[in-house]
Design brief:
Layout: H1 3-18, H2 38-52, H3 69-77
Helix pairs in contact: 1-2
Length: about 80
């Protein structure tokens, strides 16, 4: 399964667990529009670190935090091997 599909699956699973009604997940959707609160995002990043073995937001001192779903996914897809 691709990184993108794993991230989308994790978002959907956490939304279900947190009782968040997700809008359609598109690359242009802002993270704010997902309905996730800070706890849901913390859970998402922790699960993705367990699943993918990386947290792109702690790898560099010059972190640019994502604004959209597409930005968030690209942060994981563009982690150097």
């Amino acid at each position: 399964m691709s990184v993108r599909l794993r991230i989308i699956a994790a978002i959907k699973q956490i939304a279900d667990e947190q009782k968040v009604k997700l809008p359609q997940l598109t690359d242009e959707l802002t993270l704010h529009e997902t309905g996730f609160d800070s706890l849901a995002f913390a859970i998402l990043v922790a699960r993705l670190e367990d699943d993918l073995g990386v947290d792109p937001f702690t790898l560099s001192e010059e972190v640019t935090f994502p604004n959209t779903i597409g930005d968030f996914i690209r942060a994981y897809e563009n982690v150097p091997a």
